[in-house]
Design goal:
Blueprint lengths: L16 H6 L6 H13 L3 H22 L1 E2 L9 E2 L3 H8 L1 H32 L6 H13 L2 H12 L6 H12 L10 H4 L1 H26 L3 H9 L4 H28 L4 H6 L9 H11 L3 H35 L1
Antiparallel strand pairs: 1-2
Helix pairs in contact: 3-15, 4-15, 5-10, 5-12, 6-10, 7-10, 10-12, 12-15, 14-15
């Protein structure tokens, strides 16, 4: 009579369900594994504590202050007010206008930047002499410090006396023999449009880079097969290129929205929030530093953070889907 020796258990991932129910690690092994895992995590503890102290504690303090009547000009009246600050955020006409301005500013800049970024990416996806130099020049505006970009647009491009735009208008009108070209005062007559133009100039290269990466990952054999079947350039763009870019357009739109909704430098430098250009970040600044109402400013900041987290969640899902598509190829 022969007896077969039981097979030695392999790694847990290779065990059948029956073996998993009967196999147990040696006594004390689990405790030793847990101690070893904790020992390996100890070097990460200082970085974790620093991250929590630097990011989460200030945010928790902001949340607590947002429920308080906390004004520097009335220190003897500091106290808990419940949801009054949040009610004021959503009912105050000034704050409501800043929310509308923020939505208009963000939507306009993102949409125009995506359209221009798509057009430039399609041009740079073609081979021509000096393409590398042109790419470098096209991304230069995105590398400019936001404060410097706002000063450039305020004084160098849109100034009514010596700015580039009015200078070009004067030159064009002179070609037709006119001595009275239009000389708009851009920052006074079109304040929001001026800020939008400066942000579009700065963020179009960002969209272009994302969309150019999408174009260069487009399968060439599919395009070649479509050409052999007689498809024209517009049909290839409509039915192959544009659907392929959909995820990249979503990613660019969401990431751009996260950053542009927090735009502060352009508003502060170019108009100082006047003439209906105060967006939410500038309103938070004005509430905190000018009105010194720390409780209301904290509630406004919490609302902005929650809105940004919602947009960021969609952005992360889009990034995950992009990685899934790349892995599935």
């Amino acid at each position: 009579m022969s007896t077969a020796a039981p097979a030695a258990p392999g790694p847990a991932s290779e065990l059948t369900p029956e073996q998993r129910t009967t196999y147990q690690r040696p006594q004390g092994q689990a405790a030793r594994d847990r101690r070893e895992a904790r020992r390996r995590r100890i070097p990460l503890l200082p970085a974790l504590i620093f991250t929590i102290a630097a990011t989460q504690l200030p945010f928790l303090a902001t949340i607590v202050i947002s429920f308080m009547d906390y004004r520097a000009l009335r220190p003897d009246q500091i106290g808990f007010t419940g949801l009054d600050n949040y009610v004021q955020v959503f009912t105050n006409p000034t704050i409501r206008n800043s929310v509308i301005t923020t939505i208009l500013l963000t939507a306009t800049v993102v949409l125009v930047s995506l359209v221009l970024g798509t057009a430039i990416a399609l041009l740079l996806d073609r081979k021509f002499l000096g393409r590398g130099a042109v790419r470098t020049m096209m991304i230069a505006p995105f590398l400019v410090v936001p404060v410097a970009a706002a000063l450039l647009w305020k004084h160098g491009i849109l100034n009514s006396g010596y700015g580039l735009v009015n200078g070009v208008l004067t030159w064009v009108w002179s070609l037709f023999g006119s001595d009275s070209p239009p000389q708009p005062v851009w920052l006074s007559d079109h304040p929001l449009l001026s800020i939008e133009m400066s942000l579009v100039w700065q963020w179009t290269p960002f969209m272009m880079l994302i969309l150019l990466a999408g174009l260069q990952s487009k399968p060439g054999d599919v395009v070649e097969a479509a050409r052999m079947d007689g498809a024209g350039s517009w049909q290839i763009f409509r039915y192959i290129t544009f659907p392929h870019l959909r995820r990249y357009l979503e990613l660019g739109g969401l990431l751009g929205s996260i950053y542009i909704v927090q735009a502060f430098d352009s508003v502060f430098i170019m108009t100082a929030g006047a003439l209906g250009t105060a967006n939410l970040p500038y309103t938070v600044y004005a509430t905190f530093f000018q009105q010194q109402d720390y409780g209301l400013a904290s509630a406004q900041g919490v609302v902005v953070v929650i809105g940004t987290i919602i947009i960021a969640t969609f952005a992360l899902r889009t990034v995950s889907s992009l990685f899934d598509e790349e892995t599935g190829r």
